[in-house]
Amino acid sequence: MTTGPVASKPVWMLINGEVVEDEVEPRLLLSDYLREHRGLTGTHVGCEHGVCGACTVIVDGDSVRACLMLAVAADGASIETVESMGTLDALSPLQEAFREHHGLQCGFCTPGMLATCRDAMAKYPLDSDEAIRDALSGNLCRCTGYRGIVDAVKACVAMRDAIRDAAGPDQGDGR
Q1: Which pTM value belongs to this model?
Q2: What digits encode the pLDDT tens for the residues 98-114?
Q3: What is the layout of strands, in order, in the sheet containing 62-65?
Q4: What CA–CA distances, in Å, run from 99 to 31, 143, 173?
Q5: For the chain, which end, N or C, has fewer CB atoms within 10 Å of the first or last residue's CB respectively?
């Protein structure tokens, strides 16, 4: 039995605020699509089994392993990669905290760490080192020992909480 070429499928996505329409092969991974077709090389590919977390991106508000998701499954989704978080001239507060607290060394895991942290900070209180380490447990780093990363997240959580407290009781997040 011979099979012919795999037909491409049309998809549209909102990637870092930009509407993208494309044709993709059904078996193309989201990580490969972002890197090879969209030029978003901040999405790193490590283990390709969803274990290391280097490929983590935000899909419809949730952190997702891009190496485990097919690009066709992201049809209609809103995707945010590390490239949406800031620029070299204007880092996001989270990126700045990673810089200030030495939360990175080689940088390979950093984009996935940033995506995971951004998601966790939006959803959880992260009120202890243990809670932060638990939130980051799906992201592996072989360089830092995590202390700088935990300190960076703590600094951002303190900033988030101060902003929420300054906004008053009616402006909080419901916790």
Answers
A1: 0.89
A2: 999 999 899 999 999 99
A3: 18-24, 9-15, 78-80, 56-59, 62-65
A4: 25, 15, 27
A5: N
